[in-house]
Specification:
The chain crosses the membrane at residues 6-22, 29-48, 54-80. The protein is an all-alpha fold. It has a domain at 1-49. The protein has helices spanning 3-21, 26-51, 54-85. Helix 1 runs antiparallel to helix 2 (26-51) and helix 2 (26-51) runs antiparallel to helix 3 (54-85). The mean pLDDT is 85.
């Protein structure tokens, strides 16, 4: 495993560990998810430049677009829960209630 691949793997695993251990606030969970997506994006961009193929050039852009859409949805959920609950604590959410 090259040091570059190890750093991408380590960045993704740090984001995953942060998501696992720091789930008290919704904002911290969203930041960990964005870190994971950013490490995947950079790894996919480096991988596509190594192959120098036109088919793999669009993959990082598609991942970045989907990540931006997910971040927008996550932030809109954060704003909606702050308006209804007054904070972003994950323990206050009841997912079974409409």
């Amino acid at each position: 495993m090259t040091p570059l691949n190890f750093s991408f793997y380590l960045a993704f695993m740090l984001g995953l560990m942060g998501l696992t251990f720091h789930r008290t606030h919704l904002l911290s969970a969203l930041i960990c998810l964005e870190g994971m997506m950013l490490s995947l994006y950079i790894a996919l961009a480096v991988w596509s430049t190594q192959f120098e193929s036109m088919l793999t050039i669009l993959s990082p852009m598609i991942l970045l677009t989907l990540s931006a859409c997910g971040a927008g949805v996550g932030l809109s959920i954060l704003v909606a829960t702050n308006r209804t609950h007054g904070n972003d604590l994950m323990q206050n959410f009841n997912l079974l209630q409409c």
